[in-house]
């Protein structure tokens, strides 16, 4: 340790005043923890490397702001910050050598290069920052910018407006009315947005296409149409221009209805495929390749995954089972129909909830197959649960901290099932796994049209004039998150995993893609 | 022989009450609150005591028991009828014992010593005739009626002790007691109420409009969002149809889910229930506990042909076990669920548990 100190003194070659100061600093250093000594040795090693590479002063200047950000990010850096402060003081007397000490100090920090530490907080999506006026302004500007000047017509993507009184806990989210679709604000014909996308946006906002698998498949089909109608402009490259063309479409769809996690993953895949097209490909070949890729994605990630999940789930269904399902999940319906065809004897209880009443669709499909079903509303679930042997739930997305994001009411069913000791199985394809983390259903959610809650019974509509009543709010949530301790098993196309293994799968997937 | 005119008038009234009960329970007739039912039952019993000819307390008790059995058979789920009958029977016993001069306490307690020494009292003792008994009993029933009229106000008066400012309170369905409770607190405090609408009857909508008209910040949510929203709720205040003998509840469907969600988030669950809802039943009888109404509320006939292939259930009540309940607020104050058995022994005589 003394050797290091002496070396430092010699290298800095400071005068008495700074020597005395260095002495004091060394005493302080000696009292500090061993972490400091280690970093000092690392520093020396890297200092030697740096001397060999001979980086310029500009690099030092450039690395300084990185240093400050990286400092705040790395946990053990407070000690280093103090050291750096002292070094800056030394630097004022000796420029160049302090430059050397400064540089290795920055790079001797956490072994990861500073670039990766910069943005700890990713950019927040705009649809959960509605209460911030700056964000809204930025969004409006972005929508204006995303326009094409075809036929010298400048059109911008319209922004959908909020509707109705929003409950204060959710003032950071958007709340739309189904009666005012975005397409009313577009002029006909729209030169900016491909008609297939306009149609898709309208189908999303009116709820005609609903459910995460259905939405993703519809999106991919629409993109196939867009790609086959696309022609590269004369001095542009297909790989870059097509991605730029897709951006306004995606903003438009986002305004019609916020994108789901599965759609986000599909879009990421397409963008990656487009950018990976080598520049020497002819336009026709490139388009064919892209269409092929999309077909593969649908076939692998959705269709085959469903088959694989059905195969594993059938092992979990025994004869004489009473299975409870909630709402309409295409995957769960598929599993039950397959199991019934394979000859398993079971009966199904379909639980439904207002205002969407999606369970009726599931009921129709199952009854058509010939499965014997019972139908109740979600408030009767604690009456019916003693009869149930298993609960099968579908998911909208699986978050990286193990929480399951699904239709509102799913967490309630899981809670009551847990109270009655009934196993809960969630079925989800891997392309719905997402890197977000969330602990409650407030921060990131979707608010549906509040007028859906209004009901007429016995000729009376209680909530008819709810907008006039000053303090009354209606809340129509779409999603909620289920904690992982309510879920016993997640069945995916990679196998049956516990809820907490989701980040492992994400990591494996990312390594594969790279 | 009792005067024919008076008797037919009385039987008319009883029959009218019975048919009202039968119609009201199916959900299609006018929904009356339990307080009104209790008041009407007690008024009817007072009329029976006044008009029917009886000579001893035993006779009176027989008459009331007979009428009472008919009344509770008309609508078994309306337990306040049975409760009021048991209260009146207890009143008769007390007045009889007071007229005889023996203290009530001694008669109440069934100690081993009493069983050995006295042996076989009960039945014969009610045969004695006292002139003032009729007047005393009618006076006691009048006291009971005054108590019944003041229950909602008594409960509402305790509101400020339990609600602080800027709270978020959750409730389900519609309960007149809880409505009065919240409105009383809203006069002095500002808070936010979330009402779960309680499908398929959606009584939560009425509750929400009524509360918001009084200036309370209200939000209506669907039943499916109860767990999602529960993490921001400070207290859950509900009403109930019946309080069972073990401290559990028979409440509107969806309450068990609400109680489980509150327990998961460690949110206190407060039940506002007046004393006349306390019933000596236990939740063991599977076939008599639940009541079902027409499933067309759940799956309407417009759904078509799948109706014939599907079983549809529409239960009205839910059982909530006493472990999930934090506090009962009644017109005589607040109690823990473990204290309910004691209150019951003060209100009803053990021999009247089976009518």
From TrEMBL, chain A:
Q: A GO term (biological process) for this protein?
A: central nervous system development
InterPro entries noted in UniProt: IF-2B-related (IPR000649), IF_2B-like_C (IPR042529), NagB/RpiA_transferase-like (IPR037171)
Composition bias (Basic residues) maps to: 45-57
Cellular component GO terms held in the UniProt record: cytosol; eukaryotic translation initiation factor 2B complex
Q: Does the keyword Calcium apply?
A: no
**Location in or out of the cell:** Cytoplasm, Cytosol
Key word Plastid present:
no
What the record says about family reads:
Belongs to the eIF-2B alpha/beta/delta subunits family.
Biological role? Acts as a component of the translation initiation factor 2B (eIF2B) complex, which catalyzes the exchange of GDP for GTP on eukaryotic initiation factor 2 (eIF2) gamma subunit. Its guanine nucleotide exchange factor activity is repressed when bound to eIF2 complex phosphorylated on the alpha subunit, thereby limiting the amount of methionyl-initiator methionine tRNA available to the ribosome and consequently global translation is repressed.
| Protein name as annotated | Translation initiation factor eIF2B subunit delta
* Organism (species): Gouania willdenowi
From TrEMBL, chain B:
Top-rank taxon of the source lineage equals Eukaryota
Spell out the InterPro entries in the cross-references: eIF2B_beta_subunit, IF-2B-related, IF_2B-like_C, NagB/RpiA_transferase-like
A GO biological process of this protein is:
central nervous system development
Kindly list the places in or outside the cell where this protein is found, as annotated in its UniProt entry: Cytoplasm, Cytosol
Q: Which UniProt keywords apply?
A: Cytoplasm, Initiation factor, Protein biosynthesis
Q: What's any one GO cellular component for it?
A: eukaryotic translation initiation factor 2B complex
Main localization is cytoplasm
Q: Tell me, what is one Gene Ontology molecular-function annotation carried by this entry?
A: translation initiation factor activity
State the oligomer form and interacting partners: Component of the translation initiation factor 2B (eIF2B) complex which is a heterodecamer of two sets of five different subunits: alpha, beta, gamma, delta and epsilon. Subunits alpha, beta and delta comprise a regulatory subcomplex and subunits epsilon and gamma comprise a catalytic subcomplex. Within the complex, the hexameric regulatory complex resides at the center, with the two heterodimeric catalytic subcomplexes bound on opposite sides.
Q: Which family does it belong to?
A: Belongs to the eIF-2B alpha/beta/delta subunits family.
Free-text function comment from the UniProt entry: Acts as a component of the translation initiation factor 2B (eIF2B) complex, which catalyzes the exchange of GDP for GTP on eukaryotic initiation factor 2 (eIF2) gamma subunit. Its guanine nucleotide exchange factor activity is repressed when bound to eIF2 complex phosphorylated on the alpha subunit, thereby limiting the amount of methionyl-initiator methionine tRNA available to the ribosome and consequently global translation is repressed.
Can you say what this protein is called?
Translation initiation factor eIF2B subunit beta
**Which organism encodes this protein?**
Gouania willdenowi (Blunt-snouted clingfish)
Gene designation per UniProt: eif2b2
